[in-house]
Specification:
Strand content of chain B: 25-35%
Order of helices and strands of chain A: HEEHEEHHEEHEEH
Largest sheet of chain A: 8 strands, antiparallel
Distance between the termini of chain B: 20 Å
Number of helices of chain B: 2
Order of helices and strands of chain B: EEEEEHEHEEEE
Structural class of chain B: alpha+beta
Helix content of chain A: 40-55%
CATH class of chain B: Alpha Beta
CATH architecture of chain B: 2-Layer Sandwich
Number of domains of chain B: 1
Number of helices of chain A: 6
Distance between the termini of chain A: 19 Å
Shape of chain A: globular
Oligomer: heterodimer
CATH topology of chain B: 60s Ribosomal Protein L30, Chain: A
Number of strands of chain A: 8
Helix content of chain B: 10-25%
CATH topology of chain A: Chemotaxis protein chec
Structural class of chain A: alpha+beta
Chain lengths: 211, 161
Amino acid sequence: MESQMENLNQNQMDALKEMGNIGAGNAITALSQLLGKRISMKVPVVKMVEFKHMAEFLGGPEQLIAGVLVQISGDINGIMMFLVKKECARELINTLMTEFSHDYAQRDEAESFTELENSALQEIGNILTSSYLGSLANLINKRVIPSTPMLSMDMANAILSVPAIEFGKDADCALLIESLFDSDIYSVSGYFLLVPDDTSLNIILTCLGAK
Amino acid sequence: MENVIIVGMADLNATRSPGILTTIGLGSCVGIALYDIKLKIAGLAHIMLPDSTQIQNNSNAAKFADTATIRLIYQMQRLGANKANLRAKLAGGAQMFAFTSQNDNLRIGDRNVEATIKFLSQSNIPVIAKDTGSNYGRTVTLYAEDGRFLIKTIGHGSKTL
């Protein structure tokens, strides 16, 4: 069986890209409010990527990355992930921790993360993915409920195997949204990965008027 | 490194000594290493799911424990391997995220390992070593020269099976 994820027409791709733009824009706005800093975002690059090639965008299959995963339920079922390279995760943590704790000493990117830093990163992932999904829910006027976020730091391939397996039954690719964001102090590239199941993709496309 | 063949996700390959097979970043997937202990022929598969018969989108044999096992044995036999000489070593099957959910799919790592052991035993191939489960990724390398199976991780050390 061919999955529809692999057989989208141009019109449908455009609709999903636009949805990706809006979602990422909302997510970055929320992050900017959290950090109390102006963050500018480049227009996100949205593409359909096969799971086996996805790690290349994140620095290669063995690159150490941080992945925050939320499961989506409600009218839409699937997985959403926020992925960053470890050094970018370090930038985000330093910014957040400095904002909220005046005696926080910024740490070097080579050091491993403390438990507190891990939960800070998990919270960043939570804010980004839930504001993304919130705007998706508004756009298609459906219920979209994110689970509590889960964090894992490991090789890119190992982390990406989770959505790849979960949806390997239906599709071998997913919508990858690359958003580069900058503030006056740092530049970070983060990736959103949206993997709705086949039925949910259908619902999304119908609601976007691209069916 | 020379003679290194990279096996991707849902992929498999086989080689004679002194060839080397590697697969990078096994998460919940399982790396099945088969080795002909007499003729020094090695085979490695990177499977993603336990059972092809449960799934409609099953055209890629290397993706599933059942079909990958059969295909890998066949490919090794074409290089001259004798099924009776084959021994298996396994790695992977981790749970990368601490899911709290009810969803059975999410303990897929365990299910992949269980299924792989079952299908290998149906083919009468003994599993002589494994490094499976837990919550971290593994990169594995199989040396056709002597059948050693090297496992590398980030932050959890490395070992040779």
